[in-house]
UniProtKB/TrEMBL annotation:
<feature type="domain" description="MOSC">
    <location>
        <begin position="20"/>
        <end position="169"/>
    </location>
</feature>
<dbReference type="GO" id="GO:0030151">
    <property type="term" value="F:molybdenum ion binding"/>
</dbReference>
<dbReference type="InterPro" id="IPR052716">
    <property type="entry name" value="MOSC_domain"/>
</dbReference>
<dbReference type="InterPro" id="IPR005302">
    <property type="entry name" value="MoCF_Sase_C"/>
</dbReference>
<dbReference type="GO" id="GO:0003824">
    <property type="term" value="F:catalytic activity"/>
</dbReference>
<dbReference type="InterPro" id="IPR011037">
    <property type="entry name" value="Pyrv_Knase-like_insert_dom_sf"/>
</dbReference>
<dbReference type="Pfam" id="PF03473">
    <property type="entry name" value="MOSC"/>
</dbReference>
<protein>
    <submittedName>
        <fullName>MOSC domain-containing protein YiiM</fullName>
    </submittedName>
</protein>
<dbReference type="GO" id="GO:0030170">
    <property type="term" value="F:pyridoxal phosphate binding"/>
</dbReference>
Length: 181
């Protein structure tokens, strides 16, 4: 098994679907990625702001597992880090199977807490036709599986770079499955 690590880090100052690769990003406790359009204590995603701008921002950091890109490539989609809007691309961690409340330690000091699953929206098909179906699936019981990554809040700030180790700390049981946030 691959040692859990950061593959890429991305950010965008504007509300665009994709984010640009960076040599490093700075996570700010309670806020998110410094300089990113989704940084804030309250929700910053435009569709959620329209519903209730005062709700807490449970989507400060978006993570995607690089293994998804391999799966998408096999389905004919050439997608790279940042293309589907994530801030942190990881390898060696099954992000989708982490329970809510899992802590991820990134680099030397940054720590984030997993809040839930990204719910892909119509923008994903506008980016690449058919991509929505490729990032949704069904498990053995027929339940919907959202594969477009997970969301987290920043607990402790710090610099995160490609190549940084990721240390996973599970919350105490009973573990709660991730739901869309």
């Amino acid at each position: 098994m691959t040692t859990p690590r950061v593959v890429a880090v991305c950010a965008s100052q504007v509300h665009a679907f994709s984010k640009d690769s960076q040599p490093a990003i700075r996570l700010l406790a309670g806020l998110g990625v410094e300089g990113d359009a989704h940084q804030g204590v309250t929700v910053q995603h435009r569709s959620r702001v329209a519903v209730d701008p005062a709700q807490p921002n449970l989507r400060q950091v978006h993570l995607v597992h690089a293994e998804l890109f391999d799966e998408l490539a096999a389905a004919g989609f050439e997608i790279g880090p940042g293309a589907i809007g994530e801030n942190v691309t990881t390898a060696g961690i099954d992000l989708l199977d982490l329970p809510r409340g899992t802590r991820l330690h990134l680099g030397e000091t940054a720590e984030i807490e997993v809040t839930g699953l990204r719910n892909p929206c119509i923008q994903i098909d506008r980016f690449r036709k058919g991509l929505m179906a490729a990032v949704l699936g069904r498990d053995a019981e027929g339940q919907l599986v959202r594969k477009a990554g997970i969301m987290a809040i920043v607990i402790a700030g710090g610099i995160v770079r490609p190549g940084d180790a990721v240390v996973v700390t599970l919350p105490p049981p009973p573990h709660q499955r991730l739901e869309r946030v």
